[in-house]
Amino acid sequence: MNPLLQRLQPYPFERLRQLFSGVVPPAQLRSISLGMGEPRHPTPAFITQILVSNLTGLSNYPATAGEPRLREAFAGWLARRYQVQLDHMTQVLPINGSREALFAIAQTVVDASRPEPVVVCPNPFYQIYEGAALLAGATPWYAPSDPERNFAVDWDSVPADVWQRTQLLYVCSPGNPTGAVMPLAEWEKLFALSDAHGFVIASDECYSEIYFQGAPPLGGLEAAAQLGRSDFRNLLAFTSLSKRSNVPGLRSGFVAGDAALIKDFLLYRTYHGGAMSPPVQAASIAAWGDEDHVVANRQMYRDKFEAVTPLLAPVLDVALPDAGFYLWARIPDALGLSDTQFARALQAQYNVTVLPGSYLAREAQGANPGAQRIRMALVAPTSECVEAAQRIVQFVQSLSSKPTS
């Protein structure tokens, strides 16, 4: 067996299953899960219809590069959304959801024969970044987010010698779990570091279409274009239809950016077996070409956040994020519970599932930036999210009313 597999940590939801072992929630309370970030809004009917009507395509082997019409759809959406122009033949590729491609890009980019290769990522972070780095033979370095700066990642905390050994940098904007959006100045800093040290930037942007106020979140390609980097040197942006169009089971997205990196990634994916099936390609073309369903989806999330956040704010340190569908809340120290204790007790007493923040981060530089926080995914119907919030309020109030010893 590959010895690097032994370096992988249990996935957060496996740890959550172990945490809840032996817990028997009250039978009279229906189970409400805010734990998993799985979209639960209905899939738009037109996407399903196009998928089904193209099932004859299953008789054909798909090309890894995808049909030209599909790549045109990617480039067209990027032009409309970010005002950037990309060559659909050389600068975009279909991927089977952003997750598999974010993993695969590390296997393509990292040269484990070089001394002590490093992959830098935010902390907290999407667990795929860590696993991808470890299985590529690199060491992850975790850059903490700063609550005092709207959870902006403290890239300045990364030592110079780490940047010198860095081969790949994962960024996530809007962030998971914080919802923070990277401003142009932050992109400019990272581009300068990439130029100085030659590392690739993999920009995870799968939450880009769920936002609540002001302008749409700035994307990596958009930032590069605004800074005069029209060749998107050493930059790849990853996105998918899962959150945007409520089709997580479709496993459809794309990667776009530096043509030289796209060429090498296509070679890797050809051997890896990363082709998208013809029916999924047809459905994806339609989905990327329609914005009405995206606007409606965004409004459903906006309604939920407007209903839930004011309920929770009096009992938890929580505020409306820049974007995404998570609330990243801090547990008051006065309650005397860790994030794992809070999650287990909430499950046991009120049958509401939340994810401990420490499961989404690693202890690094002497601290785990996810400790004492919980992630709540507002993916259930509004009524369920409101009921879950009301139960959480009752839970916290019951703890606050207990006499101290």
Structure in words:
With 405 residues, this protein is an alpha/beta fold. It has 2 domains: 3-42 and 293-400, Aspartate Aminotransferase, domain 1 (Alpha-Beta Complex), CATH 3.90.1150; 45-290, Aspartate Aminotransferase, domain 2 (3-Layer(aba) Sandwich). 40% of the residues lie in helices and 15% in strands. The chain is built from 14 helices and 13 strands. It has helices at 12-19, 45-53, 68-82, 98-109, 127-135, 160-165, 184-197, 220-226, 242-245, 259-272, 278-288, 292-312, 339-350, 382-400, and strands at residues 32-33, 92-95, 118-123, 139-146, 152-153, 166-172, 200-204, 235-240, 253-257, 326-330, 352-353, 355-356, 373-377. The strands form 3 sheets. An 8-stranded mixed β-sheet has the order 2-9-8-7-6-3-4-5, sandwiched between helices.
At a glance:
By secondary structure, the chain is of the alpha/beta class.
Give the key terms.
405 residues; Aspartate Aminotransferase, domain 2; alpha/beta; Aspartate Aminotransferase, domain 1; 8-stranded mixed sheet; 14 helices; 3-stranded antiparallel sheet
SSE diagram, text form:
Elements: H1 12-19, E1 32-33, H2 45-53, H3 68-82, E2 92-95, H4 98-109, E3 118-123, H5 127-135, E4 139-146, E5 152-153, H6 160-165, E6 166-172, H7 184-197, E7 200-204, H8 220-226, E8 235-240, H9 242-245, E9 253-257, H10 259-272, H11 278-288, H12 292-312, E10 326-330, H13 339-350, E11 352-353, E12 355-356, E13 373-377, H14 382-400
Parallel strand pairs: 1-11, 3-4, 3-6, 6-7, 7-8
Antiparallel strand pairs: 2-9, 4-5, 8-9, 10-13, 12-13
